[in-house]
Every structure is written in structure tokens, then in C-alpha cells.
Design goal:
The complex is a heterodimer. By secondary structure, chain A is of the alpha/beta class. Chain A is 42% helix and 19% strand. A two-stranded antiparallel sheet of chain B has the order 1-2. The mean pLDDT of chain B is 89. The chains are: A alpha/beta, B mainly alpha.
């Protein structure tokens, strides 16, 4: 009994392979897997909104009218690398997924990166921050779309050091992302003549930061760098205000802040914070039009975050590459090569390119949170302070440690 | 040394929430014999009710302190009447599973409508600002939380251990048939007790709203720690849960100072140690 069932399983798997093998380049079926934190502290900045963004990208591509069949499935990695890789493996092996998108949480993102490479899928990461995805751990199957820790350090971090913030204390989320962000920012601080006087690593998803904030306060550092994200950042900022940290002359550096975080903190407390993003809904007519359509489909009418915008733009570019190839080869390396050979251009991020290490290059924007009196609507939060061109914001190829770059 | 005082005080603040929540759990377990896993969800509902009262009804924090526990308490009593009461006499496991299920449903509903990053709730004007204690800057609101929860904890302890009503309650737990024979409406008393425990959770929710985000998962993150507190203190022991709540808050605070990476596991390490040495908890009676 047992042997027969295994034999039939093997046979059916072999048949499936045979079928997909025959399909080759004329195959016009695509399966997209949106893997995200669907219910935890990163669910609002990615989560269901990222799945929606992928759906909108598929609709806007117009490929359905040209005979393509594109399906989207979504999964919840719960911020656990083992769950993330298990879903990714199942998607590739059982559900025949071609591409995985989003994947916030650097720990999960790096783990999934290996699975995608092993299965020769396509990986467009938008949600994770770690710059390792296009550095030491780069892969021919991976495109890192929206932002990374190097960019955050060289925009927000650098601007603060140059404005006189030359001593830093870090509050760091104790996992791959926090470590990468602290590392990249510390490098910028020291390179610009500042120094790091201390830091504390807190567990992911900490409700109370008062102990850590007191340590930061007594360090007398001019800048308290928040190397954390999502709910951890909003709690840090709210509680720092409570402990009077801004009034004592110390300044908070929110190294990574999303639209949904500002919404959660409220303008009263968040006003004046400086930070960097690569997308904001209220940049121009095109971003506003997209965001309006997006908001209408979200339960709470939320505007898209840069992570969700990155999922949209990444999927659009992926589908353009498939169209140029004339069909889906179901070969991750081949598709990513095609994506890298085409310049990127979309309504949300404008013109850009994907570098050989998988890093997407586009402009980064320095924003400041508006005062409550300046805000005209429920999502009117940012004012633009400066623009950093893509080639200055992201890792120069000469500094990248990616093995794909033959030097 | 100064930093150490500050950490002790901060620990005491977190301890207040642990104490209030574990007190409610202890009351419910002691009187109803139910392991109330919905406690975290009810705490979250307290915070949300305060948010709605303020943003929809313009009702301020002070009224919310009174109204939210009543509203959520009534919700709890409905739960008890419609579901929990049928579990009397069954194994603890049934109550645990039922309340866990209720918690998941309530959290899921809130998450569906409000997302996960939460809503802001401002500190009331009267409690804004802080004072410089020399060794630290103490936000007035946090000081208020410590004092207020101490008062509530002691009042609850007094109600149950020292008043006639409390005596009825304790007697009803020991022997419901006999107490009923004296003309006391035992089922109604049990419902009210569950309402009281739930109200305490909601009260903690209102207190924490200005400090933390009002988030659907705020209770889920906290409830596991609170259960550890109850186990360490001894299931069902009122004073035990209050003292352990404050004590563990302080221990956790000190861990955040000396070895922050372990700050969210230290409580469980202690729980294991206590269970090994004294399985009934520090102040628990043998079952």
C-alpha cells in the first residue's frame, strides 16, 4: 500500500515535470506568491496591502487581454524564517509558483533568498531592509526593489551627522535587520567624523521601551538612532516623547519609518521627524491616482506604503520582462537577467535600473513629518525636504561585495 | 547606581500592568475555576473602548476609566451566561480552549477592521509632562499608573478577603450547594465575579492606552507573560498575584538593564525554576 502510493506520487510528479517541460517559452501562465507578515507588526506596511498591490500590477499590465493567465496566492510567514522557507518550498514544489514578492523582515527574507535560488525561481523583495540581499548574499534570482539599510544610513544617517549629530546611541532590533542597519549607519557616522557611544539590542516586538530609553538618555549621545521598524519604532517614538527625550537636547533618528507608522503615532507626537523613503503617495498626479485606486480597495482606506508601491512596481517590471521574452520560461535566472537588461520605468518610482547585483536604483527622498496644523487630510503627513539621486543613495557597485560581480 | 534606581521604578510601572491583569485572572480562576485565555483580548477591548469613547463620543480619559470596564465587563458577563457557565464541573482544558477561541475571534475581528499598527491615544492633559527625580525623568502619567493600580489591587483584595460579599464568594466556590441553601443566588454571583475580573482587564487596557498603541494584538503579546506571573504567584491566590506581578515587573526591568537580550525570557526562566521547587506557586495552596 505504502509503496504504491509513493510510486504514484513519483509518477505524478514526473508527469508534472514532463508537462511543464513541454510548455517551454510559449507558456503564458504565471503564478505569483505574495509572502508577507499578514497579521503581526509589519502587516500594515506590507501584508494584505502588498497582495493587493500585486493584483493591481497584474490588472494594469493588460496581459490578461493578451492571453496570459496570471494567478496570485498569498502566505503569512509570521516573522519566522522556518515558516517562511516552508511556505516558499511548498509554493515552488507543490503550487508551481514562479515568483515570490514582498517578504518583509530581513531574517525571513535572507532565508527565503536561499530557497528561491535553490529552486531557480524569481524573488522580488520589497519589504526587507538588509543590504546583504545584494551584497554578500546576492543571488542571480533576486531583485531588491524598494530600499535597503545602506540607503537609509547614507541618507537620513548622513544628513543628521552633517547637521551636527556626531555622537550616536543605537536602539537596535535584535535580529538580522537591526544588526545590518546599525552596522551600515555606524559606518556612515564614523566615516563622517562622528562616534558611536553605545547601544542596546531589544527583542523584536517589544511593547515597553522605557528601560532602553533611559539607557539612551543617560548615554548623553546627541542622536538616538532607532535601528528598528514597524510597531517597535512607533512605540520607541511615543515613549521617548513621554520621557521628555526631545526636550533634553537629544534627537531621535527614525532610520526607518513608514507611512503607516506615522499614522499610528499621530502627527502630534511624530511632527518634525526626519526620515527617508523612496515613495510617497502624494508626490505627483500619477502617484496620487494610483494611491486613490489602492485606498478604495483597502479596508481602512489606507494609502500605500513604499513597500506596497515597490511590490506593484516590481511585479509590473517582471511582467514586462516576461512579455518581452514572449512567454514564461519558468527559469528564474533567465527572467531576472532579462529584467536587469531592461531599464525600469513606472508611475510610482519613475526611471531607474536594476544593477547586476540585483539592486534596483531609483531616487530617495528625505521627508519631514508635518505639524498637525499643516496636514490637510487623513493621510497628509509628509513634506519633501530633499532628493538624493539613486546613484548616491544606494551602494556603488565598486563597494558591493556581491560574488556575481566579476571584478 | 542612579541608572539602577531608574530601572527599578520603570520595572514597577510594568509590574502594575502585570499585577492588574494577573489579579483579574486569579479572581476568575479562584472563583470560577476557569483559565481565562480571553483575558488579553478583553484587555485590548478596554483600550479600544476608551479610544472609541474619545473619538466617537468625545468622552475623556477619566470617564473611560469608569465606563470602559463596565462596558467590557457586561460583554464578559454575556460571555459567561451564554458560554462559560455550561463548562462548570468539566476539566480546565475545556474552559481554556473555549476562552482561547474567543480571544482569537475577538482579535481577528479587531485586526480586520483596524489593522495591526494601532491607533494613537493621547495622555490626558492633567497628567502630561514629567518631573525630575534627580536620578530620572519620571513621566507623571507613569507615576499615576503605579499609584492607581496599587489602589485598585488592594481594594480588590479587600473586597474578596475581608468583606461579607467576599466571604459569600469564597464559600460559594467551596460548596455552591450549601451556599445556595442559605438563599444566595450563586450563578448570578459567579457571573458578576467574571464581570469583575474582566472589568479589571479592561481597566488595565484603558491605563495602557496612552503608553502603548491601541492595537488588536496588544493583549496577545502580554497575556503569556501574565500567565507566567499567575503560575509563579500560585493559581487563584489574590495577594500572590499582586505581589508577583509587581516583583516580576522589577526583575524584568533589571534584566533589561543588565542583559537586554534576555528581557522577554527571564519571566519564563523564573517560572520553570518556581515550578521545579514549588509546583503550587510561591503562595499557592496545594490543590
Amino acid at each position: 500500500m505504502k509503496t504504491t502510493s509513493i510510486a504514484s506520487l513519483l509518477l505524478s510528479t514526473a508527469l508534472t515535470f514532463a508537462v511543464t517541460g513541454v510548455a517551454s517559452a510559449q507558456d503564458k501562465t504565471v503564478k505569483i506568491g505574495a509572502l508577507s507578515d499578514q497579521s503581526g507588526l509589519y502587516a500594515d506596511l506590507g501584508g494584505p496591502g502588498s497582495t493587493l498591490a500585486a493584483q493591481m500590477a497584474v490588472e494594469d499590465s493588460g496581459l490578461a487581454a493578451k492571453g496570459w493567465k496570471i494567478d496570485i496566492i498569498s502566505g503569512d510567514h509570521q516573522n519566522k524564517p522556518d515558516i517562511g522557507t516552508a511556505i516558499a518550498r511548498q509554493w515552488f514544489d507543490v503550487d508551481k509558483v514562479d515568483i515570490i514578492v514582498d517578504v518583509p523582515n530581513s531574517g525571513v527574507a535572507l532565508a527565503v533568498n536561499n530557497v528561491v535560488k535553490e529552486k531557480n525561481g524569481v524573488y522580488i523583495n520589497s519589504g526587507a531592509a538588509t543590504s546583504d540581499l545584494t551584497n554578500a548574499q546576492c543571488s542571480p534570482n533576486t531583485v531588491h526593489w524598494t530600499y535597503d539599510t545602506y540607503m537609509l544610513a547614507h541618507t537620513t544617517g548622513q544628513a543628521l551627522v552633517k547637521a551636527g549629530g556626531d555622537s550616536w546611541f543605537f536602539l537596535t532590533a535584535d535580529y538580522a535587520f537591526g544588526a545590518a542597519l546599525e552596522r551600515d549607519t555606524s559606518a556612515v557616522v564614523t566615516a563622517n567624523g562622528g562616534k558611536v557611544v553605545g547601544g542596546v539590542k531589544h527583542p523584536l516586538n517589544t511593547p515597553d521601551f522605557s528601560s532602553f530609553l533611559l539607557q539612551a538618555q543617560s548615554s548623553k549621545a546627541k542622536i538616538i538612532g532607532l535601528a528598528n521598524a514597524g510597531g517597535d519604532t512607533t512605540n520607541s517614538i511615543k515613549q521617548a516623547a513621554e520621557f521628555g527625550i526631545g526636550k533634553g537636547g537629544q534627537k531621535l533618528a527614525a532610520l526607518l519609518l513608514f507611512l503607516t507608522d506615522v499614522k499610528a503615532i499621530g502627527l502630534e507626537t511624530a511632527q518634525g521627524l526626519n526620515f527617508t523613503e523612496t515613495f510617497y503617495w502624494d508626490m505627483n498626479d500619477q502617484t496620487r491616482a494610483f494611491s486613490k485606486r489602492f485606498g478604495e480597495k483597502m479596508k481602512n482606506g489606507a494609502m500605500p506604503t513604499m513597500v506596497q508601491a515597490g511590490v506593484y512596481a516590481g511585479v509590473r517590471h517582471y511582467l514586462k520582462a516576461l512579455e518581452a521574452l514572449g512567454g514564461n520560461p519558468h527559469d528564474g535566472v533567465k527572467v531576472v537577467e532579462k529584467m536587469k537588461s531592461m531599464p525600469t520605468e513606472d508611475e510610482l518610482f519613475g526611471k531607474g535600473e536594476i544593477q547586476p547585483n540585483g539592486r534596483t536604483i531609483h531616487s530617495a527622498y528625505l521627508f519631514e513629518v508635518k505639524k498637525p496644523s499643516e496636514s490637510k487630510g487623513p493621510w497628509d503627513f509628509y513634506k519633501l525636504v530633499g532628493t538624493v539621486p539613486g546613484d548616491q543613495a544606494f551602494t556603488p557597485l565598486s563597494e558591493s561585495k556581491c560574488p556575481l560581480l566579476k571584478k | 547606581m542612579q541608572a539602577l534606581y531608574a530601572q527599578l521604578l520603570v520595572g514597577l510601572i510594568n509590574g502594575s500592568f502585570y499585577a492588574l491583569l494577573s489579579l483579574g485572572l486569579a479572581v476568575i480562576f479562584g472563583m470560577l475555576n476557569i483559565i481565562n485565555f480571553a483575558h488579553g483580548a478583553l484587555y485590548m477591548m478596554g483600550a479600544f473602548v476608551a479610544y472609541f469613547l474619545l473619538n466617537l463620543g468625545g468622552i475623556n480619559y477619566w470617564w473611560a476609566l469608569l465606563l470602559a470596564p463596565i462596558i467590557v465587563g457586561i460583554f464578559g458577563m454575556i460571555l459567561e451566561r451564554t458560554m462559560l457557565q455550561w463548562l462548570t464541573g468539566l476539566d480546565h482544558l475545556y474552559g481554556l480552549l473555549l476562552t482561547f477561541g474567543i480571544a482569537l475571534i475577538v482579535q481577528g475581528v479587531f485586526q480586520n477592521y483596524f489593522g495591526s499598527s494601532g491607533l494613537p491615544y493621547a495622555i490626558p492633559d492633567q497628567l502630561k509632562g514629567g518631573m525630575n527625580l534627580g536620578f530620572m525623568f519620571l513621566p507623571i502619567y507613569r507615576g499615576w499608573v503605579v499609584i492607581f493600580s496599587l489602589v485598585v489591587c488592594i481594594a480588590t483584595w479587600f473586597l474578596i478577603e475581608k468583606t461579607r460579599l467576599g466571604a459569600y464568594l469564597r464559600a460559594a466556590t467551596e460548596n455552591p450547594t450549601l451556599v445556595r441553601a442559605f438563599g444566595v443566588n450563586v450563578p448570578r454571583m459567579i457571573t458578576l465575579t467574571y464581570g469583575l475580573g474582566v472589568g479589571l482587564a479592561a481597566l488595565a487596557g484603558v491605563l495602557s492606552a496612552p503608553i502603548n498603541q491601541v492595537r488588536p494584538l496588544m493583549g496577545a503579546d502580554l497575556i503569556i507573560v501574565v500567565f507566567a506571573v499567575v503560575v509563579i504567584g500560585g493559581m487563584g491566590s489574590i495577594m500572590g498575584s499582586i505581589i508577583t506581578g509587581f516583583a516580576l515587573g522589577v526583575i524584568e526591568g533589571l534584566t533589561k538593564y543588565f542583559y537586554p537580550e534576555a528581557s522577554n525570557t527571564v519571566v519564563f526562566v523564573l517560572m520553570v525554576l518556581v515550578l521545579l521547587v514549588k509546583p503550587t506557586g510561591l503562595t499557592g495552596r496545594a490543590a
